[in-house]
Queue: 4 jobs
Job 1
Amino acid sequence: MTSLIIVLFALTYVGMALGRIPGLKVDRTGIAMIAAVVLVAVGAMPTGEIVGAIHFPTLLLMGGLMILSARVGAAGFYDAVASWIARQAGRPLRLLALTIAIGGLLSALLVNDIVVFAMTPPLCAGLAARRLDPRPFLFGLAAASNAGSAATLIGNPQNIMIGQVGGVDFWWYSAAASVPAAVALAVSFGCIALVWRKSLSAKPAALVVDAPAIDRRETALCMVGLLALLALFATPLPREISALLVAACLVVSRRLPSRQLLDEIDLPLLLLFAALFVVNAAFARTGLAEEALRGLAAVGLLPDRVSLLAPLALLLSNTIGNVPAVVMILEVWRGIPEGTLIGLAMLSTFAGNLVLIGSLANLIVAERASAGGVHLSLRDHARAGIPITLVSMLLAGLWLWLGGFMAL
C-alpha cells in the first residue's frame, strides 16, 4: 500500500508540473481529483478521515472572497478602472506605472487571479485603441498581481491557505509583507521599463472609445463590504466566518440574482485544494515525510532559513506551481515557525513571476489576452520576469533576515 501511495503522490505532482495529462484534456484539478479518488477507493485514505484531511476554513474563506470580488466586477468597477488607466496615461511609462500600481493594490485586497481575469480584456481594448504594444503592460499587470498579492493573506490562494492553516495574524503579516511587496512593485516597473523601453517610447494615439459604465452605488456598497471585512479581521471572529458574513450581505440585491454571484465561485480551484489536501494527507500517513524532515533537520537542511527556503520556493513554484507546493509543504511539515510561514507566503508568491507558467495569474492574463488577439510568449515574459523575480526575492530575503523573521 505504501508503494502505491508514493506512486500516486509522485504522479500527482508530476501532473501539477506538466499542467495536464499528455494526450488528454485533463488539467491540474482533474489530475488531483483522480488521485484523491483512487487513494480513497484503495483504502489509503479512510473515508472517515476525508473530512478531517480537507481544511474547510481555507475553502470557505476563498469562496467568500470570490463572492465579494464578483459583486465588485458586476458593478463595472474592474472595466472602469482598466479604461481609466488607458485614458489618464498621456505617456506609455505613466500608463505602465498606473497599471502596476493599481493592479498591485487591487490584487492585495481582492484576490489576484480574479483581478487579472476581470481587468485583462478591457486593458487590451484600451491599449489597442491607443495603438500601443500591449505586451509590456499586460506583463506589468501579471507581475503586479503577484507582487501586490504578497502584501496580504487574502491576496492569492497560497497566502490564504498559509494564513488559515498556520494561524498567522492578518494585520501582523501585512505589516511584515507590505514593504517587500511595494519594493517588488517598483522592481517590476523598473525591469519592464528597461527591457521594453523601445515599445514604451511610442506615442499613444488619442483615445476615442466611450468609457464603460460603472454603478457608483454598487461600487460604494462593495467598498463598504471590503472595509467591513478588513475590520472584522482585527476581531476574534474567524476569518472564514468574517468573509462569509460579508458575502452573505452582498448576495442580497434588488438588481443582481444571487445565482449570478454564486456562479462566479471558482469551483475547479476549490476542488483542486480539496483533492490536494487528501493526496497529501494520504502521503503523510505513510510517515515518510516525517522521516525526511527529521533527516533534513539532522544535517541542517531544514528550510527554515532564507538561504534554503528561497531556492526551494523558486524551484517548486515554477515546476509544480506555488499553490500545490504550499499545500504539500503545510501538510508534510507541521509546526512551521511563524517567521518561516511569513517567508513562505512572500517568497512563493514572488517566485511566480519567473516564467509565464509560474503562477495562475500569469496564465490567466495570457489566456484572456489571447482571446483578444494578443500573444504573450514564454520568451517575452522571461525577458523581464527573470530579473523581476530574482531581484524581488533577493530583497525580500534580506528583509526577512534583517527584520528577524528568519535566519540567513
Note: Residues 53-402 form one domain.
Job 2
Amino acid sequence: MTWATRFRIREYLRESLWVVPSLGALAGILGALIVVLIDEHVKVPSDWAYSSPTASTVLSAVAGAVAALTGFVVTVTVLVVQMATGTFSARYMRLWYRDPVLKGVLALLIGTLAFAFSLLRRIETNFVPDLGVTLAEVLLLAGLVVFVVFLNRFVHRLRPVAVAALLAKGVRKSLDDDLLHTRGVPDVFAGPLEGVEEEPSLTVRCEHPGAIQAVNLSAVVTWARRHECLVEMRHSVGEFMEAGDPLFAVYGGSGRSDVAERDLRGFVALGLERTIEQDPAFALRVIVDMASKALSPAINDPTTGVQALDYLGASLRRLGTVDRSVPRWRAGAAERGVVVPARRFEDYLALGVTEIREFGATSIQVMRRMRALLEKLEQEVHPENRAAVQAELARLNATIAATYSDSIDRDRAEIADRQGLGGPDRLEPGEAAAVQPIAPVR
C-alpha cells in the first residue's frame, strides 16, 4: 500500500460521518452481551431490581428517547449545513464534518440505541438484566448532556468570528506542517529549475484528475538520494491536476521507469478538493470567501469583513515573520535532491487582501481596517517582505482615490482603524490630545 493510499484512507476516516457512529453501535451490542453475562453471575440490591414488564417499559422508553435525540442531531446538522454554505463558504463544510464532537454524540446515541435493543431481547420471565437497564438509563442521561454540549458548540460556531478563528488556527497548524515538510528535510530546494539544458530522463504524469492534497516530501528526498538523481516537482500542493499533467521530472539516475513512476506517484495524494493540512493558502482562501460573501450586495455585512480581516492579519503576520526560507536551487549546485515550487509571501498577501479590497471598496470600515492591517504588517514582517506590503498599500490608496473621489467621507476612508470604524485615535509619541470643552447642562 502506497503512502498516498494510506493518506486517502486516513482522510476518508476523518471525514466520514458513519465510521465512528458504527463503532458506537458495535460497542453498544458488545456492551450489552458483557452486561448480560455479569447480570447472570451477580446479584444486585433489591433497589436496583426490575420486574420484566418494568424493564421492558424502561428500555423501550430509552430507545425511543435516544432515537428522537438522534433525529434532533441530524436535523441540527442539516440546518447548520444550509446556514454555513449560505452564509460562509461551502469549503467550510470540510471542517464541519471532521468535528469530533459531532461524531462523538452520534456514536453515543446510536450506541445507546443498540445497547437498549440488545437488552430488550434478553428480558425473560425469570431473568432481567438489572445492571443493563440501569446502565441504559445512565447512558440516556449522558446522551442528553452531550447533546446540549453539541448544540451549544455548534450554535456558537455559526458566528462568523468563530469560523474565522477556527480557520486561522488551521493556517497556523498548516504552516507548522509546511515548515516541517520543507525546512526540516535536507536536500530540498526552492524552484524554479532554471539553467538545465538536458532533458529529464523520466517524466511522471498524473493518471487521474484531482487536486494535490499532500506530498510525502521526505520520501521523495529519500528516493532521490537512493537513485542519485534530481527530482523536480512541477506543481505545488493545492493545484488541480488533469490526467496527463506532469507531476515530477527526474534528471539523472537509473532504473526501470515503470517502477520509478509507481513509486513517485505513491508519494502524492490526489483528491476531489484541497485540504488545509499542507496548504496554508487554502485556509486563507476560505476566510476570504467568507468575507467576500459578507461584502456582497445581497448580504451587505461589512462588520463580518472586518472580523475576517482581524484573523487574516494575524495569519499574514505569522506568514511574514516566520522564517520559511528554503535554499534556492542553482545550476550545478546539486545533483540530487528535490526542487519544489515555492509560494512567496506576496502570493499569500495578494490572496488575503485583493478580493476583500475589491468587494469592500465602498465600505469605509473595511478600508480603514485594511489600512491598519497593512501598516502593522509593514512594521512587523521581515524586511524582504515589506516591499509587497507597501505595494498593497499603494493599491489601497488607489482604490480609495477612485471610489471616494467625489465623497465627503474620503478623509475618513483614508484613516487606519483597527476596529474598522469608531476606534480610538492613536496619537504619535509626545502629541497631546486636544481637550474639547463640554457645554454645561441647563
Note: The first helix runs from residue 3 to 15.
Job 3
Amino acid sequence: MATAEVDSGRAAVEAGPHLSPEERAELGRNARSTAPRSSHADWTPASDRPDPIELLEQQAATRVPELVPIRYGRMAASPFAFFRGAAYVMASDLAETPTSGFRAQLCGDAHLSNFGGFASPERDLLFDLNDFDETLPGPWEWDVKRLMASIAIAGRDRGFSAKQRRTILLGSAEAYRMSMQRLAGMGELSIWYERVDEKVLTARLGSDATERQVKQFEKTVAKAKVKDSTRAFAKLTSTVDGEPRIISDPPLIVPVSELLPKGEISDFHERMHTLLVEYRKTLPIDRGRLFDRYRYVDLARKVVGVGSVGTRAWVILMIGRDSGDPLFLQAKEARPSVLEPFCGKSEFGNQGQRVVEGQKLMQAASDIFLGFLRTTGIDGKRRDFYIRQLWDWKTSAEVQSMLPSGMALYGRLCGWTLARAHARSGDSVAVAAYLGNGDAFDRSLTEFAERYAEQNDQDHLALLEAIESGRLEAIAGI
C-alpha cells in the first residue's frame, strides 16, 4: 500500500467523529467504489514478493542468536505454528491488498491464539485481544484478514473439510460485521464500556454451545483463576540461602546470575532497583504506590511464544509483605512494529510506550502494572521494554484440539471482540456502512482466507526446506 493511501485513511478516520452519523455512513458507502467488497477476496502473490525466509532472517539479525533456532523449530512444527511467527511476512503481503481507507488501532497480529482471558482490575475474567507487540494504527481490514487466515490455517491443521472451514469462516466474518453494525448505533461511552466478561461468555455459550463445551468452558475458567503470581512463585522459584530465587531451566529460563560474570551480578541487581524506579514513573499514581510495597528479588531471561522467541523477555520476581505475597512481572522487548514499514512510524519514540498505549486503546481493561522502560542491556545496547504481570488469570484457547463446532463458536467470539477493539479508535459508523447488511464482505474474506492459507502452506514448506538445506538452524521440541 502506498503511503499516500495510508495517510488519506488517517485523515478519514480522524475526521469521521466530527461529522454527523449520516455523513460518516455516506463516506463508508462511497468507499465501496474505490475498494469494492469483492476485491478483498483477491490474493495473488506479487511477482516481486519478498522471500519469506529472508524476512525471517531480517528479524533474526537483532535477536538473541542462541534462541533463534528455537524460534525456527517452533515455527516448523506446523503451518499454523509458522503463521504465528510470520506476522512480518503477512504484513508485507497485506500492504499490497485493497483497503477502504479507514484506519483504527490495529493489534497487528490478530490470530486465533492471540485472543484469550485475563483478569480485569475489578477481578472479572475478561475475554479480549491479549498480544500487542505489533500494535500500530493502520487499515482495519488487515487485522480481520489475519484473523480469518488464522482460522482457515487452523482448520486445515485440524483436518476440517473445506465445507466445515467455510462455515466457520463465514460465521466469523459475519460476527465482525454484525458487531460493527451494532456498535455503529451506540454512543461513544457505550462503545468504550463494551466488554466480554464471564457473564457475557456464559450467556453466549448457553444458547450456542453443547453441554460438553459448557463444562469445558467452566473448567477453563476455574483453571485460569488460580493462574497468578502465587502459582508462578510455586512453579518457578526455590529458596537459596533463605531468599527465593528463580529456578534455572535453560534455555527456556536462565537466571541473570548465569548470564553475567560473578563479579558483575551484585552491581546488576543494584541497577535493577534504579530501573524499576524509572518503570514506576510510567504507572498511574495509585498503581505506583501499590508497586512501592514490593521489593525486587530476582530476574531471569525467559523464552516466550513463537514469533517472540529471540526477543529479550525477562521475568522479574518481587516480594510484598513476605514470601507468601509474590509479584511476578514480565518485561518484554518492544521493537518497531512489523506494520511500521507499511503504515509509518509510531507517534511514540519509545516502542514500549507504543505497545502500552495501543493495548490500552484496544482492550476493554488492561493489567494494573502495565508500563514501559528504556534501558541498557547486559550487552551494552539500549532497548525498549513493556512490563506487565506474568500471570494474572491468563488463559488461551487450545486451538490445536478444537472440533469444528468449537472453532465456529470461538471464531465468532474473536470476530465480535476484534470489532469492538477497532470501534474504540476507528469510525464504526463508516466501517459498518462500508460492510453493509449483506454477506458480500463475509464471502470475500472467506475466499481470501483460503487463498492465503495455501500461500502459508507454501511458505511453511520453504521454511522446512531452508532448515533441511542448512540455510537455517532449527531446534525442535523446545
Note: The longest strand covers residues 295-302.
Job 4
Amino acid sequence: MHLSANNPRTRADFLTFLRHARQQADALLLLGDIFDVWIGDDVIERPPSWLNEILGELALTAVYCPLFIARGNRDFLMGHGLCDALGATLLPEQILLETDAGDVLASHGDEYCTDDLPINVLNSGLENPGFRRYF
C-alpha cells in the first residue's frame, strides 16, 4: 500500500478495507510495504496525525481478528515494538500457511528477486545479526 502522508486516497481505501476485515476476516496478513517508509518503531511514540489514524485502526482490527505483519522492502525496520503496540504478530520473511485449499507460502517476495543486485547487497547487510537485533 505504501501508505504515507502524500496519498490520502490510498489511506482512506486502506481504512475502509480494515473496517471490512474487522467484520469478515478470520485473520489478516499484511505482507510488507504497508508504509512507504518506516524509519523505526520509535515513531509510534509521537506519530503524525495521518499515521496515528492508521495505527489506531490497525490496533482496533487486531481486537477483532488476529493481525499478522511482515516486513517489506519499504518498511523493513518495522519491529516488535510496533507489533506489540498494535496487538499484532510480526511474521518471519517466509511462512507456510496450512489452509483448507492446501499449503500456501506467504512472503513479501523481495528475496525472490535474485537478479536485483543492489537490493540483494542491501538485504545481506540488513540481515547482519548485529544490525537486525535492534528491530
Note: The mean pLDDT is 88.
